[in-house]
Design a protein that fits this description.
Largest sheet: 4 strands, antiparallel
Radius of gyration: 13 Å
Distance between the termini: 23 Å
Structural class: alpha+beta
Number of strands: 4
Number of helices: 2
Low-confidence stretches: none
Helix content: 10-25%
Mean pLDDT: 93
Order of helices and strands: HEEEEH
Strand content: 25-35%
């Protein structure tokens, strides 16, 4: 059964900071998440499953170049 994830807000995305040994992935739901890097960068990624069962990930770009709204649109169109 899939876990229910509370959707991210633009403020949460903006204020997210990398923490050594901490939670550095923020899920938005539907496989979309914001990944934080030690360098301070933030990247949008989508985890999905192929018909043969293999799990894959695709990157949409860095935040704030790709906003939360745009990342959600890209995730639904993929």
């Amino acid at each position: 059964m899939p876990k229910i994830v509370k959707a991210l807000t633009e403020v949460q995305c903006r204020n997210a900071r990398y923490i050594e040994g901490g939670k550095n992935i923020f899920f938005d739901g539907g496989g979309l998440y914001l990944e934080l890097k030690p360098s301070g960068g933030k990247s949008w990624r989508l985890k999905y499953q192929r018909p043969n069962g293999a799990a894959n990930r695709i990157g949409f770009g860095s935040y704030p170049d790709i906003t939360l709204l745009k990342a959600r649109q890209l995730a639904t169109n993929t």
